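I am still getting used to backbone structure tokens and would like to learn alongside you. Please make up or recall a protein chain and show it to me in full. Would you write everything just below, so we can both look at the same thing?
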Amino acid sequence: MIPEKILWKVYAGALGAVTTIVSQKVVEGVWKYVTGDEETPEPNDPEVSTVKAISWALASGIGIAGSQLLMHRFVNKRWMKFSSVNPITGKSLGDEDDD
């Protein structure tokens, strides 16, 4: 039988991959809607303005990083409900801390 922790890592990895793909498509759609451009800019293209390249990098970075953060928090909360262990600290939810 596969250990639970490995199953949760596979679950988080698969959910992370799907989240990245979906959030990339959402960011591209929002970019096209807001700017009216038919395509997203290629930031490495010297013909694309620096402002547009930086704007695209920031928009895509914030969109994808934000969705990944939300996805990891979702998975970690599910893990805590399932196992009663904080996946970040490794502490049992019933442990008292003397700090």
